[in-house]
UniProtKB/TrEMBL annotation:
The keyword rRNA-binding does not apply. Belongs to the PDK/BCKDK protein kinase family. It is found in: Mitochondrion matrix. It is an enzyme of class 2 (transferase). One of its GO terms (molecular function) is pyruvate dehydrogenase (acetyl-transferring) kinase activity. This is Protein-serine/threonine kinase. One of its GO terms (biological process) is regulation of glucose metabolic process. Residues 74-242 form the Branched-chain alpha-ketoacid dehydrogenase kinase/Pyruvate dehydrogenase kinase N-terminal domain. Keywords: ATP-binding, Kinase, Mitochondrion, Nucleotide-binding, Transferase. It comes from Chlamydomonas leiostraca.
Length: 295
């Protein structure tokens, strides 16, 4: 994986995991009532300085319909087999698949956010996230069918814009949770039985978000590889997947990063003994392994 992409993917995963764990320490959630996401979607979305009175009814209907459709699972083995095809063909097939699949996944995320407790679903930061997802959903549904490499390139440009738009989703959700906690439990009265349900939501939401961003990021990485001269393309890279990922190297990097954090925050760090064979490799996403070991 390229360094910048790896660091960005890794930092998002770390922040998502941290928010989910931290929420279990927050208490005092009151008056939780589950409402239909369809009813709550009547509330206007907002994004920063943008205020949207209401989404078009046709778009709401489309989001609802897509949220009821099943997401298509994609295995690591499938992506590896897919990577054996010519790169240009990979680009077209990947764009065709994502053109159909990503709106379904975005609709699921919107539905989950609308099924939060009303006070949290109506939080300005959570509504901002819903607006980002709805905007990306609209763009993808309005994009014409992908037929050739030229269409795939245009689709990828649109996907890159949507990918960047969602960069602030995790901080926005964190801010929304912070404001919700202050509003519902200003005196820190203790945990509620409902904490488990919200923690489960965070785990599910962030795991689904990681999967969504992996599919989008993997496609963008394929596109960037296709633009390189053949002699500069790595034979061990299929999008974000490294076919010869070295666990020893990734673990060593994660240990060093963790030690750096300890030294910066505590002034010292323990030594870690790492045992493993440098000859052992496997197909994997290095940033995901790094995140697990770092934690």
């Amino acid at each position: 994986m390229q360094g910048a992409a790896c660091r960005a993917h890794m930092s998002c995963a770390m922040l998502e995991h941290g928010i989910s764990k931290a929420w279990s320490k927050l208490g005092g959630l009151q008056n939780f009532s589950r409402v239909s996401w369809w009813l709550s979607s009547a509330a206007p979305f907002s994004s920063g300085g943008k205020n949207i009175d209401a989404l078009p009814r046709a778009l709401l209907d489309d989001i609802m319909a897509c949220s009821l459709r099943k997401q298509t699972g994609v295995s690591l083995r499938y992506i590896l087999d897919f990577g054996t095809q010519p790169l240009n063909r990979q680009m077209v097939l990947s764009a065709k698949f994502l053109h159909q699949e990503l709106p379904i996944r975005l609709a699921h995320r919107i539905a989950e956010l609308n099924n939060l407790p009303p006070a949290l679903s109506a939080n300005r930061n959570v509504k901002r996230v819903k607006w980002w997802y709805a905007e990306s959903f609209r763009e993808m549904r309005e994009f014409p069918a992908v037929k050739d490499a030229q269409d795939a390139a245009k689709f990828t440009q649109m996907l890159q814009h949507a990918y960047s738009r969602h960069n602030a989703v995790v901080p926005a959700i964190a801010k929304g949770l912070e404001e919700y906690k202050r509003a519902t439990d200003p005196y820190g009265s203790g945990q509620s039985d409902l904490d488990e349900e919200l923690t489960a939501f965070l785990d599910r939401f962030f795991l689904s978000r990681i999967a969504l961003r992996f599919l989008a990021g993997n496609h963008v990485a394929l596109f960037e590889q296709a633009r390189l001269p053949p002699e500069r393309r790595s034979q061990d890279q299929i999008g974000l997947i490294h076919t010869r990922c070295s666990p020893l190297q990734v673990v060593s990097d994660a240990v060093q990063d963790a030690r750096d954090v300890c030294i910066r925050t505590r002034g010292d760090a323990p030594h870690v003994n790492i045992k493993g064979s440098p000859r052992l490799t496997l197909p994997y996403v290095p940033s995901h392994l790094h995140h697990m070991v770092f934690e």
